[in-house]
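Mods, move this if it's the wrong board.
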Amino acid sequence: MEKKSHAIIASVVLSILVWLSVSMNNQYSVTVRIPFKVSDIPAGLSLANPIPRHVSVRIRGTGWQVASSYLSTTASVNFDASALTRKRVILTSRDLSYSMDIGSAAQVLNIDPDSVMVSLDSTITRKVPIFARVDVQPREGFMVVGAPRVTPDSVTITGARRLLREIETWETQPREFKRVINTISATIPLSDTLPGIVQVAAREARVRVDVEQVADNTYHDVPIRIEGNADSANVLLLPPAVDITVRGGINEMANVTADSFKVTVNYRRIHRSGNVFFRPTVEAPAQLQVISLTPDSIECIIRK
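Not the wrong board. Structure tokens:
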């Protein structure tokens, strides 16, 4: 019985090997995705335009050749830029084929994209601010106080002059924080939107976003100032002061006094319009929201 089982197994294995041998010698057409690289860029120059990281290649060959291309770890299109005589060149499908190693003797039928532009420009280095792409959603009754603080606040980038002069900031990767009740401090990786094109000196930044409990407070008898008139004695304001109700973070509010506000009316505007009642202009600390002004308009009387 044991000999019979061994014979059956051997027969099955032999059948599989015969089938595999026949199948792998048949012709197949498949598409493989291989890396695209630009190497040996002349000193002092950098790529000035994004290039595809991969190209799709339609190949035809035996099963063995196709499998070899799929399994190859060296298959690539590697364009040698050292001999470039121009700073801008368009590589056709023929150029790409000459620079291609697909890891086997399979026939190349088609390349997508069928052309690639390679543009070079002088290499420069500059420092740009880091922009934190954070979406902080406080829980009800809490609020974000101020703008995110980033450490370091800037990063050095290196690349082609034409490309870098259009970059004003460098972003972090996006992060979202929900139902927040405390200050957030997180290390966030910097984005890598131009890999192989722009070199970024840092990989991450520390981002702090202050979140505080919301508080409302009213500051009484804030005096009104008259602007635009050398002699304000001939202007009577009724009343001469207002109450200001503001909303902000509870910790931020602790450092605010009535002197933190500037309430003004413009004499020239009063004189030109001839109106009697005006809403004064209020300048409040940046982190506070003015909710109401009492009274919301004042009477301005110009003495003759």
